[in-house]
C-alpha cells in the first residue's frame, strides 16, 4: 500500500490523458516555438521559421535579437541600469536647463517636478523587466539590506548608475551648450545670478544649515523608499505594468514638497556623477568645496541612511501586517504525475506557501 501523501489541493480530475512521451506525437499536437522567441527554430539560409502552423517573417529587430541577446543576467542588468539612469539624468537635467536658462519664464516649478516624475516613469518602464530599474544607489542599498540582491550586484549597479548619470549630464550639456554660453557668457559659475551648475547637481538654499541638509536628504529618501516598498510589495497587488506610473508620480510629489531646501537629490548617483561632470567641464573645484566641503557629501551619504530607515519603517508599520490571501501568498505548481513507463497518469494543481 502506497504511503504517498495526497496533494494539498486537487482540481477536479479530468479524464486521464494517455500520452507516452517516448512516442512521437501527431504533427498537430507538436508545440512550436513562439515567433518572438530568440530560441525559436528558423532556417539558416533565410529569414523564415514556422510558428503556430504558419510561416512568419523575421524582421530586422528579431534577427538582431537572436544575434545580440545577452544571456548573462548580471551583464544585461548592469547595462539596463546604466542606460536607464543615463536617460533619467538626461531628461531631468534638460528640464532643469530649460527652467534655469529661461530665468524661470519657460516653466513653473511644478512643471519641473512633474517632468522629473514623467522621465522617471519612462526610465523605470524601460528597465524594470531586466534589472528592476533601481536607477539610484539608495534604492539598490535598501534592496541589498533586505536580502533581495547580493553585494556583487549592488556594487555593479552603483557603478553603472554613476556612469549612466555622468553621460546623461554630458548629453544635456551638449544639447544646451549654446544656451549655457549665451546665459553665462562663457564663464561657468557655481553660485550667483548667472550660475548654471544647478542644472546638473543640487546646491542648498542660503537658509539651510548642515544639520538641516542632513535631515532633508534622510527624510526625502526615506519617503521615496517607503513609497517604492509599498508599490512593489506583492501583497498590495499593484499590477507590474502600473508600478512605473506610481513611482513616477511619487517622485513628482516629492518634488512638490521637498525641493525648496536643496532640490531633492535623494539619489547619490543623480548628484555625484553630474557634479563630477561639472568639474570636468570647467566649473572648478568649488563644485565640491562649496560651503567649505559641508555640502557635496550630504546627497551622497545621507540618502543611503534614509533608504535604510524608510524601507524598514514601511515593513514594521505596514508590510509585516498586510493580510495574506491566496493570490499573493501561495506558489502554484503543476505536478506532472507519470507512471514508470512514462505514461501521464494525472495532473494536480498544488498550492504551497513559500
Mean pLDDT rating? 84
- Biggest sheet layout: 2 strands, antiparallel
| Global morphology | globular
Level-1 CATH class name of the largest domain: Mainly Alpha
Poorly predicted runs of 5 or more residues: 1-52, 330-339, 344-354
At the fold tier of CATH, the topology name of the largest domain is Glycerol uptake facilitator protein
Task: Please list the strands of the largest sheet in the order they lie side by side.
Answer: 1-2
Number of strands: 4
Strand content: 5-15%
Region (Disordered): 12-46
Keywords: Membrane, Transmembrane, Transmembrane helix, Transport
Protein name: Aquaporin
Function: Aquaglyceroporin that may modulate the water content and osmolytes during anhydrobiosis.
Label this structure with key terms:
354 residues, mainly alpha, Glycerol uptake facilitator protein, 2 domains, two-stranded antiparallel ribbon, 12 helices, 7% strand, disordered C terminus, membrane, glycerol channel activity
Description:
With 354 residues, the chain is mainly alpha-helical. The chain folds into 2 domains: 31-69, no CATH class; 74-326, Up-down Bundle (Glycerol uptake facilitator protein). It has helices at 60-68, 73-101, 109-127, 137-145, 151-175, 177-184, 210-232, 243-262, 268-283, 286-293, 298-317, 326-329; strands at 48-51, 54-57, 331-338, 344-352. A two-stranded antiparallel sheet has the order 1-2. It has a two-stranded antiparallel sheet with strand order 3-4. The longest helix is centred in the first third of the chain and has 29 residues, at 73-101. Its main location: membrane. It is a multi-pass membrane protein. Belongs to the MIP/aquaporin (TC 1.A.8) family. One of its GO terms (molecular function) is water channel activity.
